[in-house]
């Protein structure tokens, strides 16, 4: 019996020795395995595994939720993650939301327009600590069209009216309209919205006031308070447009916040700066700037839509917004260019009877620009003197986004069967002209790129579109005496004839200068000529 016990104990000890081999034996076993299975060894790391497997050494990519909004690839998502407004579930919001959801193509067009400007807008909103819903406001205001102009005389992506624009530092003159300068108007709009929110301490009231005026919103609040009614936005008696205005913004914010719920994906916009600022320090021809920046003139002018003419304002701003690559090219040229190289200069000999105004009109500039270029303090100039005039480097019709060319494009768009040209005379109003031609007043203003309350300046041409064929007129031969500032184009427009006709009737060429007092033969339809012609 003892013999069997000793044998069992020996077997147990032997088994124990086999399950815990010596280090030398372990190494031999590993070497043996390596020889038998080389394909497995080649897939294993050559360094010891233990340090890599320690938890403190494991490096994993951060979850999506840990990205900051500023790290998002799509700027819509950067905005979405910072939306804070509470959106009520009511009929007014639902109606606006349904409109946007039913028109995805419209939202894609808006996104395309917004793409160059959205990053600079979002950056400025975040810098000021304002609600990111404000980045969606230009969609409501203008669909992100920098050339938008309303019947209420509001212009630009933020739709400033002239008085408010000037109050917040936006200049409006012949050369430049700060309301259409996206950079300048963004700063002004956020200043204005901040002031309104300080006044009302309520963002919905502030937004309503941005649309209809602080006085009107304040009056509506006081009226409800006196009647013992609630004074929240939804309870106020406000204009119809304002009652829909705030729900539009809230609907857009709701759609963006709950994209999955509504199965909507707006056209992505890269969350990177698209435009950068180039300071030119003095007036520059936009065509020259485009050439030196290596881009199309129309593209450059679109990004800098505040400039009304062929060049930046001589008095400033001297700022251009350009894509980074083009900005670098322009900066490189500006570094070696002299100030006189930034515009083309024409030497003009003053003729008898000419004034700074006449000369400025001829070269499509302003008397102030001529005075500045020639160091003239007053307006007195003498016949025989020479003046340096800043002039466009290209024909003016090449500047397609200038105020004149945009107006020409608007007026030439067909709106009816018959087009009539009306030259404004002193005393004309849109109301009188709409009755005279039996057309809608707002349509008449729109056909001419104007608002119904815009002033009508004598000598300016308006187009009128009639839905019926125009009756045959009465043709007469007349003799017209040339006035200071006249050109063949202006005379042709005034009398509804062509420049070619005037050349043919008078045996002259358009390259000839017209002299004040010169008489021209014209064959015109007297039923279509204004009273002052």
Describe what you observe in this structure.
Helix 12 packs across helix 13 and helix 19 crosses helix 20 (367-374). The strands form four sheets. This protein has a two-stranded antiparallel sheet. It has a two-stranded antiparallel sheet with strand order 3-4. Helix content is 44%, strand content 9%. The protein is globular and about 75 Å long. The model is unreliable at 1-58 (pLDDT under 50). It has helices at 2-19, 23-36, 38-41, 50-53, 75-80, 91-102, 104-114, 118-128, 137-142, 162-167, 182-200, 203-212, 214-226, 240-257, 259-262, 286-293, 297-303, 324-334, 356-362, 367-374, 403-412, 430-437, 441-447, 488-494, 499-506, and strands spanning 275-279, 319-323, 344-349, 386-391, 418-423, 461-466, 475-481, 519-525. With 533 residues, it is mainly alpha-helical.
Short description:
This protein is mainly alpha-helical.
CATH topology of the largest domain: Lysozyme
Q: Quickly give the structural class.
A: mainly alpha
CA-based gyration radius: 36 Å
Task: Provide the β-strand percentage band.
Answer: 5-15%
User: What overall geometry do the principal axes of the alpha carbons give?
Assistant: globular
Low-confidence stretches: 1-58
Q: Domain count, please report it.
A: 4
How far is the first residue's CA from the last residue's CA? 143 Å
Which sheet architecture does the biggest sheet show? 2 strands, antiparallel
How many helical stretches? Answer: 25
CATH architecture classification of the largest domain: Orthogonal Bundle
Residue-averaged pLDDT: 85
